[in-house]
């Protein structure tokens, strides 16, 4: 919302400067986005009179001008085609810095003719991009006076951000009222004296039955015998300053009331209307050629303004071209209406049509404004265009809006955090236009019509505190529950961070990627239900919620490889999505490694990543999260984006804690990613939390006796898993066998086809006495027997 | 006998000194003290000596044996040292060669910043609450007092998923304020929570990303007022940015779910085009907050005539950018290894208030 300082003083009697006004506006909640002091840098430029302009003796396109600067007469060589004798232009003396270029003007000669200054174009002044000739000032511009002041540029433009609740501040008068309430001057009265009606309006307002919900009330009148010309200079200057183009007095008046008092109006050329105007719901199939030159298809959710023959406007949004005013307009009919904010917002949205009127109607107008709005407009039109006004024509009725809020002045302290005397609170409210009644614990506060946002006590606290000064509220540190802070996270909430730091310690780098992925790829990652496809994606490749983070990490790896960054090892601990319910989101700690696990190195050969790198990552995370990693089983049922023979699940019985393995070659091919690549997905929330609440650990039982290690080599069918063999060995003596692990695997000629030799190391830990050779032999025999029985293995000799 | 001993001593000592390496020294030992060694033979000869002389001879022989053993041991040490020296000379490595590959990864700035937030607000008695990224119109808008025509509900801001069978629109949450609603509907006051998490808006340019992170704060009890709101957020800003004298400004503003509503700016300077936090005459907006709107409390079944408090929301990515001087938002989600290595954090340096938030 833009306005100039002088426009503000139309409503506010103040001595405050623009800086103080700006600071106060921000303190009030009308955040200043900028103060444009347009005269800045233009101080040296004055009005100059071209006494004579003659052709340059040595150049066809140049003129030699003698300029009266108000102080003296100066010769200037000028290249502008419009430089001519008797004109008034903008003169810059030598030594002036030209705003557009930042260069200083120097005295000199151009093709042998002295040139001691410059006649400037709007382009050089930095005022526009128009460099077609020099500025041509009006004949009455006073020679020698500062150009900026003469052109009204010394009036700073203030731009404030108006929050959606402050519809009243979409008019400059509302802003002035807030400043006055804050003590920065007094609000001047607005003259809304009704203009006497000289005749009955030839056009009458009607509201079709049933349309009152879209347009509760409309007021208007005819003004006849007028002449539409340019609006006065002051109005043109103000409109130009806030970025509007002056068009004609009648159009400028409606733009003026929109910004001055937040009262959008429409004026129809009364001679182009056929009969009375009616507010009614549009009929499907109707359309309107609007004032912006575009044609809009209308439907029954929109209120239109129509006469007997055609539609003339879209209620609250824009008028029509057919009945728009022109230079020839001699008689107008004014529309000052109330429209339902919801209807206007929906209409504007559906038509994708923004206008200053829509912006105000959808935020809510003062319900009393149709009457005073039409009077303000009438006064201005009569002033600028002459003519005579008819009686008013009114349809509909003012919606009920008067209400009282019961307000306890103690709430400024108990909610606002600051004690403000009741009299001062009431003073603030009255200056804002509220009425206050009663006394005692609660007073009755009635908001004015322009404050539709005020609902209850909290709103009154806001008004009182912001006008009194939010900066006066003393900060109070949060009172603690005790000297010691309690944990902010639960044991379950600690786990994502544990997983992140574990993976990072293992050399992986944490990424955060989008929750989206391309729906074209979701089927590679188990697919996703239709309810997880975005209705309005921002890009075609961000149109589905990801069912697995692996896809995004592989895509990230590819981006890095494409940039020449090799062997990416990335992880992300974040959400993935099964369905759209509140419980359809899973927390996964996902990691990928692509390329080499070990790069080329002088101590040994490079090595590609393989499924065991992923398994190690999985086990490290699971161990950090407190999973019983010794008891986990591996099953070969990882999902389809893994290599079917080089992947697995880590599970506790039916509870799958993780998937890991090599990425399926088809996935790599689709993503155009050069492998090898491995991935791991740990489902953080499925790891069982410790059951006991206490901090104690189980008792540690250390045996004083030496452990004994024995090695075995078994030949098994290659289909027998190492895990089955180890499990069988462990089962041979659960108290004595402390550990059993595979340390070598051999496939080849020495064991024959279809066979593998697995070397097993078993640690025996006696607890009662040192093991005798005989006891060791006995348990060894039991191990061999158990393994043979479970796996069909034979002891390798 | 004694003369013979002296001669033997002399010869053996010479042999010990002459032994050039450990095997030669071993041969000397065998020749002297072995089963057939010269000292051993002399010992065996003792039985032939007259009893009156035997005692003296025996003592002398024992002395000789001790001396030889000592000389052997000394020589052995010397030879061992020389041999070790010789071996070590052959074992020299070029230690400027690179180590075996491997090293630490990095933690993303967002994770680190969230932990910092948890540390600071944890010390102020807040605990962490969570909620789903995919939520519905009720939790994201209606319960938060957004009117049916509020512009934020429109398609250009909110990502939509297909509606539920009952017609309820499904959205990607546009703010973490949804968890205010979920928390208040699930439990009884008082509340003091923060909610860090992913948020989504259909917006993408240099300063906007369709996915970003927010932290929501909510305090509800019977006495919390705007003084606490100011105190809490001033304390937070100064602790987080590690600037004890950081100016913090509160401006009235508007949000549907708070009344009064406030925006918070921190002091900065922009001299020479460089943004620097601290007292510098300029301001930078960092968060929105306010006293929870009575309608929101009512919508969650909390009695607004008894309970009140404040809520705030701020962009985690944004405050991380400001604190750590990260210029652009979009690379946060691009997973460029160079960016992650440069702006990431070493894994074993989690932030804490006692140990320091960041170095």
Question: Could you explain how this protein is built, in words?
Answer:
The complex is a heterodimer of chains A (797) and B (359). Chain A contains 19 helices and 43 strands. Chain A is an alpha+beta fold. Chain A has six domains: 69 residues, Phenylalanyl-tRNA Synthetase, Chain B, domain 1 (2-Layer Sandwich), CATH 3.30.56; 105 residues, OB fold (Dihydrolipoamide Acetyltransferase, E2P); 192 residues, Phenylalanyl-tRNA Synthetase, Chain B, domain 3 (3-Layer(bba) Sandwich), CATH 3.50.40; 65 residues, Phenylalanyl-tRNA Synthetase, Chain B, domain 1; 195 residues, BirA Bifunctional Protein, domain 2, CATH 3.30.930; 88 residues, Alpha-Beta Plaits (2-Layer Sandwich). A seven-stranded mixed β-sheet of chain A has the order 29-32-33-39-38-37-36, with helices on both faces. In chain A, strands 14, 15, 16, 23, 24 and 25 form a six-stranded antiparallel β-sheet that branches. Chain A has a five-stranded antiparallel β-sheet with strand order 6-5-4-7-10. The longest helix of chain A is centred in the last third of the chain and has 19 residues. The mean pLDDT of chain A is 93. Chain B folds into two domains: 89 residues, Methane Monooxygenase Hydroxylase, Chain G, domain 1; 235 residues, BirA Bifunctional Protein, domain 2. In chain B, the strands form two sheets. In chain B, strands 1, 5, 6, 7, 8, 9, 10 and 11 form an eight-stranded mixed β-sheet that branches. In chain B, helix 1 packs antiparallel against helix 2 and helix 2 runs antiparallel to helix 4. Chain B has 359 residues and is an alpha+beta fold. The longest helix of chain B is centred in the first third of the chain and has 40 residues. The model of chain B has no long low-confidence stretch (mean pLDDT 91). In chain B, 40% of the residues lie in helices and 20% in strands. The chains are: A alpha+beta (797), B alpha+beta (359). The interface between A and B is large, with 101 and 92 residues.
């Amino acid at each position: 919302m833009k306005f100039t300082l002088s426009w503000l003083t139309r409503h506010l009697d103040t001595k405050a400067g623009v800086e103080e006004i700006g600071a106060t506006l921000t303190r009030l909640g009308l955040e200043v986005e900028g103060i444009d002091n347009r005269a800045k840098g233009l101080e040296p430029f004055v009005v100059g009179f071209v006494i004579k302009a003659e052709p340059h003796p040595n150049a066809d396109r140049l003129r030699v001008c003698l300029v009266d600067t108000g102080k003296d007469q100066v010769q200037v060589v000028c290249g502008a085609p419009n430089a001519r004798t008797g004109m008034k232009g903008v003169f810059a003396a030598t030594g002036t810095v030209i705003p557009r270029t930042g260069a200083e003007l120097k005295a000199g000669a151009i093709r042998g003719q002295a040139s001691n200054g410059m006649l400037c174009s709007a382009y050089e002044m930095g005022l526009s991009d128009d460099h077609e000739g020099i500025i041509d000032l009006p004949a009455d511009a006073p020679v020698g006076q500062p150009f900026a002041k003469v052109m009204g540029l010394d009036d700073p433009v203030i731009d404030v951000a108006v929050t959606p609740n402050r519809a009243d501040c979409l008019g400059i008068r509302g802003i002035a009222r807030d400043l006055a309430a804050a003590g920065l001057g007094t609000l001047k009265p607005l003259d809304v004296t009704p203009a006497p009606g000289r005749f009955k309006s030839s056009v009458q307002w009607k509201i079709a039955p049933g349309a009152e919900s879209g347009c509760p009330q409309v007021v208007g009148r005819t003004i006849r015998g007028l002449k539409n010309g340019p609006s006065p200079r002051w109005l043109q200057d103000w409109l130009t300053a806030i970025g509007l183009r002056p068009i004609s007095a009648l159009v400028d008046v409606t733009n003026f009331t929109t910004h001055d008092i937040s009262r959008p109006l429409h004026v129809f050329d009364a001679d182009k209307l056929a009969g009375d105007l009616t507010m009614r719901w549009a009929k499907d199939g109707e359309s309107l050629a609007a004032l912006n030159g575009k044609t809009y298809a209308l439907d029954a959710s929109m209120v239109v303004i129509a006469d007997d023959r055609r539609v003339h406007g879209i209620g609250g949004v824009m008028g029509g071209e057919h009945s728009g005013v022109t230079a020839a307009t001699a008689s107008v009919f004014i529309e000052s209406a109330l429209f339902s904010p919801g209807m206007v917002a929906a209409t504007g949205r559906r038509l994708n049509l923004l206008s200053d009127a829509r912006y105000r109607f959808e935020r809510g107008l003062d319900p009393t404004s149709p009457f005073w709005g039409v009077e303000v407009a009438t006064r201005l039109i009569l002033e600028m265009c002459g003519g005579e006004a008819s009686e008013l024509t009114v349809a509909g009725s003012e919606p009920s809006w008067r209400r009282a809020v019961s307000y306890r002045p103690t709430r400024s302290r108990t909610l606002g955090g600051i004690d403000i005397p009741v009299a001062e609170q009431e003073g603030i409210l009255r200056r804002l236009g509220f009425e206050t009644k009663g006394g005692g614990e609660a007073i009755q506060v009635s908001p004015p019509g322009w404050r539709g946002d005020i609902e209850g006590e909290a709103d009154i606290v806001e008004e009182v505190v912001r006008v009194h000064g939010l900066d006066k509220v003393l900060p109070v540190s949060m009172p603690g529950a005790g000297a010691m802070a309690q944990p902010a996270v639960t044991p379950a909430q600690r786990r994502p961070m544990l997983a992140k730091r574990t993976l990072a310690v293992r050399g992986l780098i944490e990424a955060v990627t989008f929750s989206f992925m391309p729906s074209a790829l979701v089927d590679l990652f188990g697919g996703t239900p239709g309810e997880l496809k975005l209705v309005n994606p921002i890009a075609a490749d961000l149109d589905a919620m990801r069912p697995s983070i692996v896809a995004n990490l592989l895509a990230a790896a590819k981006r890095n490889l494409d940039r020449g960054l090799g062997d990416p090892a990335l992880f992300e601990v974040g959400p993935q999505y099964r369905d759209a319910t509140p419980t359809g989101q899973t927390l996964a700690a996902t990691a990928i490694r692509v390329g080499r696990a070990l790069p080329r190195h002088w101590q040994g050969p490079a090595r590609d990543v393989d499924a065991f790198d992923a398994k190690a990552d999985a086990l490290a995370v699971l161990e950090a999260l407190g999973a019983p990693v010794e008891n986990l089983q591996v099953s070969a049922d990882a999902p389809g984006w893994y290599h079917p023979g080089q992947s697995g699940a880590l599970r506790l019985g039916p509870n799958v804690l993780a998937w890991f393995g090599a990425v399926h070659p088809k996935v790599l091919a689709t993503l155009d990613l050069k492998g090898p690549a491995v991935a791991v997905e740990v489902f953080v929330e499925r790891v069982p939390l410790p059951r006991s609440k206490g901090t104690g650990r189980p008792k540690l039982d250390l045996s004083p006796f030496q452990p004994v290690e024995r090695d075995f080599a078994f030949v098994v069918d290659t289909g027998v898993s190492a895990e089955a063999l180890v499990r069988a060995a462990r089962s041979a003596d659960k108290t004595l066998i402390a550990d059993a692990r595979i340390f070598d695997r051999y496939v080849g000629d020495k064991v024959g086809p279809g066979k593998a030799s697995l070397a097993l190391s078993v640690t025996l830990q006696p607890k009662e006495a040192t093991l005798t050779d005989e006891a060791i032999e006995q348990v060894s025999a039991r191990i061999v027997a158990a393994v043979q029985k479970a796996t069909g293995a034979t002891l390798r000799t | 006998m004694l003369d013979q001993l002296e001669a033997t001593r002399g010869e053996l000592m010479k042999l010990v000194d002459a032994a050039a390496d450990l095997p030669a020294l071993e041969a000397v030992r065998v020749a002297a003290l072995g089963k057939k060694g010269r000292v051993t033979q002399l010992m065996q000869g003792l039985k032939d000596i007259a009893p009156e002389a035997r005692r003296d001879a025996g003592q002398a022989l024992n002395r000789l044996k001790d001396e030889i053993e000592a000389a052997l041991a000394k020589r052995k040490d010397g030879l061992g040292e020389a041999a070790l020296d010789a071996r070590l000379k052959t074992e020299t490595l070029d230690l400027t060669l690179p180590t075996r590959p491997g090293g630490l990864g990095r933690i993303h700035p967002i994770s680190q910043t969230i932990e910092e937030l948890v540390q600071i607000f944890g010390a102020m008695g807040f605990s962490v609450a969570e909620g789903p990224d995919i939520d519905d119109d009720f939790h994201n808008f209606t319960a938060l007092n957004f009117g049916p025509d509020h512009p934020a509900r429109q398609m250009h801001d909110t990502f939509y998923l297909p509606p539920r069978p009952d017609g309820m629109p499904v959205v990607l949450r546009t703010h973490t304020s949804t968890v205010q609603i979920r928390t208040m509907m699930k439990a009884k006051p008082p509340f003091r929570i923060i909610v860090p998490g992913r948020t989504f808006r259909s917006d993408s340019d240099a300063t906007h990303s369709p996915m970003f992170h927010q932290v929501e704060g909510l305090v509800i009890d019977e006495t919390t007022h705007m003084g606490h709101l100011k105190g809490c957020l001033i304390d937070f800003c100064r602790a987080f940015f590690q600037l004890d004298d950081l100016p913090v400004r509160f401006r009235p503003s508007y949000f549907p779910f708070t009344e009064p509503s406030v925006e918070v700016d921190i002091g900065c300077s922009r001299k020479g085009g460089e943004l620097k936090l601290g007292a510098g005459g300029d301001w930078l907006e960092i968060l929105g907050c306010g006293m929870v709107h009575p309608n929101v409390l009512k919508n969650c079944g909390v009695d607004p005539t008894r309970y009140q408090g404040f809520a705030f929301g701020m962009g985690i990515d944004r405050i991380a950018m400001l604190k750590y001087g990260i210029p652009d938002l979009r690379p946060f989600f691009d997973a460029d290894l160079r960016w992650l290595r440069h702006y990431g954090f070493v894994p074993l340096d989690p932030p804490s208030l006692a140990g320091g938030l960041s170095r």
